[in-house]
Design a protein that fits this description.
Oligomer: single chain
Number of helices: 7
Helix content: 25-40%
Structural class: alpha+beta
Pfam family, one: GSP_synth
GO molecular function: ATP binding; ligase activity; metal ion binding
Organism: Sulfurimonas aquatica
Radius of gyration: 20 Å
Keywords: ATP-binding, Ligase, Magnesium, Metal-binding, Nucleotide-binding
InterPro entries: GSPS_pre-ATP-grasp-like_dom (IPR005494), PreATP-grasp_dom_sf (IPR016185)
Largest sheet: 7 strands, mixed
Order of helices and strands: EHHEEHHEHEEEHHEEEEEEEEE
């Protein structure tokens, strides 16, 4: 398909050439976990807003009012997101690692490429947990109707120079076009907000848009309240509110008395992570550019590992409900060089 946004350090392409076999029961368990977790996130967001806990989650002050407004008025405009989960295979418990609610990647690989992988492996008659393309199409059509506009106008945007983000943004634009919506594309640095569009999707982190000035006429996708969901501080809020949930790991704003993973609130791609044992000794760590953000401390849980010592993390996409599954494999701390792995239900 001409995709070449990066290869691993060993020269292999980002998409693996094998499929991971799971059972229908395992696929259903991932589906149910994502749906339940999303409901928990909505309740946790209400708690954060009611108790003004924005500083605790490292939310920029300039975005607080926008977050409140969008959560109140645009609750149904969350286009898509991705839960990262450990476990779920061979009887291992499903645990929430984090929630990519604002700018999730792996969309093209999960929605389309792994379907083609069924054909390339002569498995056309087999199923996948994968209704991502159709679900996002249905959701964006619903969002369009929220403004009572027969032909809503959508602007899709990302920054230039990052091929993966361009592929993701163009795919979302294509999904909208398939639903009969009017669309345009422009790079974010060339974009000026005016009355020309009803909705704008931007594949750019909200926490880096502190100087953003809202337009009264254009609605943003994903809305600014998804920054609450994106903050890893929500993992500690969730554990406080739902300590008995089977999907949650003990998480705190202070170090805990067990093996834990230290993460930054808005860290990405496995950067600035420490794995620390019960004695406080750092076992593994990664460098990065996110030291400026506050930290959270999440109970360590092992990823599923294969015979080649590769670790697997599940990614469940959500668009008005859990709608698709894909996997990443790599080192114990999964970074930007981890590989996408498709699946098949056997």
């Amino acid at each position: 398909m001409g995709l070449s946004w990066h290869t691993d350090s060993d020269g292999e392409y980002v998409v693996g050439d094998k499929l991971l076999a799971i059972t229908e029961q395992e696929a259903l368990a991932y589906h149910d976990a994502a749906n339940e977790l999303y409901e928990m996130y909505e309740k946790a967001a209400e708690y954060v807003i009611e108790n003004e806990l924005f500083e605790l989650l490292d939310i920029p002050k300039s975005l607080i009012q926008s977050i409140k407004n969008s959560f109140k008025n645009e609750r149904d405009n969350h286009l898509y997101s991705r839960f990262d989960l450990s476990g779920g295979i061979d009887g291992t418990p499903i645990k929430l690692i984090e929630f990519n609610a604002d700018t999730p990647t792996m969309l093209l690989e999960s929605s389309l490429i792994q379907l083609l992988m069924l054909k390339s492996n002569s498995l056309e008659d087999k199923k996948q947990f994968n209704n991502i393309y159709e679900s996002i199409g249905k959701k964006i059509k619903s969002i369009s109707k929220s403004k009572s506009a027969e032909y809503s106008r959508f602007l899709f945007s990302c920054i230039s120079g990052i091929e993966e983000e361009l592929n993701t943004t163009k795919l979302l634009q294509k999904i909208a076009q398939d639903e009969g919506l009017l669309t345009e594309f422009s790079y974010l640095e060339d974009t000026y907000l005016d009355d020309k569009h009803d909705f704008m999707f931007k594949l750019y982190p909200w926490e880096e848009m502190e100087s953003f000035e809202e337009s009264q006429n254009i609605s943003m996708l994903n809305p600014s309240y998804t920054l609450l969901y994106q903050s890893k501080g929500m993992l500690a809020i969730l554990y406080k509110l739902f300590p008995d949930s089977p999907y949650l790991l003990e998480t705190s704003f202070k170090p805990i008395k067990k093996k834990y993973v230290k993460k930054r609130m808005f860290g990405r791609e496995g950067a600035n992570i420490d794995i620390v044992d019960e004695r406080g000794e750092v076992l593994t760590s990664t460098e990065g550019i996110y030291d400026e953000y506050k930290a959270i401390y999440q109970e360590y849980t092992p990823f599923v590992k294969d015979e080649e010592n590769s670790y697997y993390q599940a990614g469940v996409f959500y668009s008005d409900g859990a709608c698709g599954l894909g996997f990443r494999k790599g080192a114990e701390i999964l970074d930007n060089m981890s590989k996408f792995v498709g699946h098949v239900i056997l």
